[in-house]
Amino acid sequence: GAVVSQHPSRVICKSGTSVKIECRSLDFQATTMFWYRQFPKKSLMLMATSNEGSKATYEQGVEKDKFLINHASLTLSTLTVTSAHPEDSSFYICSAPRGGNYEQYFGPGTRLTVT
Amino acid sequence: GEDVEQSLFLSVREGDSSVINCTYTDSSSTYLYWYKQEPGAGLQLLTYIFSNMDMKQDQRLTVLLNKKDKHLSLRIADTQTGDSAIYFCAESINRDDKIIFGKGTRLHILP
Lengths: 115, 111
What we know:
Distance between the termini of chain A: 37 Å
Low-confidence stretches of chain B: none
Helix content of chain A: under 10%
Number of helices of chain A: 0
Strand content of chain A: over 45%
Oligomer: heterodimer
Mean pLDDT of chain A: 92
Order of helices and strands of chain B: EEEEEEEEEEE
Helix content of chain B: under 10%
Strand content of chain B: over 45%
Radius of gyration of chain A: 13 Å
């Protein structure tokens, strides 16, 4: 079946550094991918829509210069957390709609810890 | 705007039925979902219902939709310890569109 992967699954970084998270659709092409953020014991909050070949669409309140999104190909979107701070620590999840199918496929998530 | 509300916590005895309720505000929502998330894990789509349906049953799961009241429920029959998780109600306008999630209901199973 369709699978979406994320890499890395866990990452610890120091404050001020940047971290890149990859989201890949493994056996289908995705012109659109979505990035969500989940705080501990909280819901998933949509951060942005990643569009292949064009700029990402950010939700209100999400800093586009801090959370850089690049949809490099039809199977890969990356989220880069720039100048990370401890408050950026969170669980980041991507999803990709396959098209022609009701289900969006979610990645397993990336847990970011900023020290 | 879009909003999905659900109770935060539910405690049920093993073997009983669990009913998790959800309300949403966007009347243009076409797809309504229930996702399950176990501790430290990703999301698992449990079931979904189209807005033109009233009910959907899938083994132990029953979804009821009251479109007039924008109320969605998930019933889990014969609740087991393995059902312990957070259950998210969610909606989207189109199947390829962004999904809006509720805050999640933590289901706790009593022995």
